[in-house]
Amino acid sequence: MRIITFGTYDLIHIGHINILEKCKNFKGEENTLIVGISSDEFSFFKKQKYPIYSQEQRKKILESLIFVDSVFYEESFEKKRDYILENKADVFIMGDDWEGKFDEFNDICKVVYLPRTPSISTTEIVEVIKQK
Ligand code: C2G
User: Fold this and answer.
1) pTM (2 d.p.)
2) Which ligand 1 atom sits closest to the C-alpha of 8?
3) What is the pLDDT of residues 28-59, one digit of tens each?
4) Catalytic status, residue 60
């Protein structure tokens, strides 16, 4: 199956790796995993701050992972339908912090939310480093 997922993937951590692994192995198959990585401008739009790593660095890091087959820049929520169609995705997977948010795409693919890895996020990592 062709799986698509989206995210910022800044300061990549075990929560990111876990969901990418689950996407790649979804339903016990060796799927093709396509990742839409938030551009710097789209990240700023979502979170009112720029990622620590640039979009070029984040893209290169993701491309070097064994679970990931291809990476493109996500530039807006509005283009999501086109991204799914262009990439011929069968399944769209996100962590369950996005539960219910993308159900509108069930008409063109299967939308699935998987459990997040508890107790880790880019924001927390930054806070911990700041306190040291
Ligand atoms: N994630 C996870 N466990 C964590 C942290 C993140 O499973 N502890 C998952 C998120 O649920 C998401 C993916 O990792 O599916 C990427 O997370 P972020 O980089 O935080 O992405 P986000 O900024 O939420 O962007 O259009 C959708 C957005 O672009 C998603």
Assistant:
1) 0.96
2) 19
3) 998 999 999 999 999 999 999 999 999 999 99
4) no
CA of 16 to the centre of ligand 1 (A): 7
DSSP for residue 111: E
Binding pocket residue ranges, ligand 1, CB within 6 Å: 6-9, 15-16, 19, 38, 74, 94-95, 97, 116-117, 120-121
Q: How far apart are alpha carbons 76 and 115 in whole angstroms?
A: 24
Residue-wise pLDDT tens digits, 87-113: 999 999 999 999 999 999 999 999 999
Q: Is residue 49 among the annotated active site residues?
A: yes
Q: Which atom of ligand 1 is nearest to the CA of 18?
A: 7
| C-alpha span between 94 and 89 (Å, rounded) | 13
The contacts of residue 33 (CB under 8 Å, 6+ apart) are 3, 5, 20, 23, 24, 67, 68, 69, 70
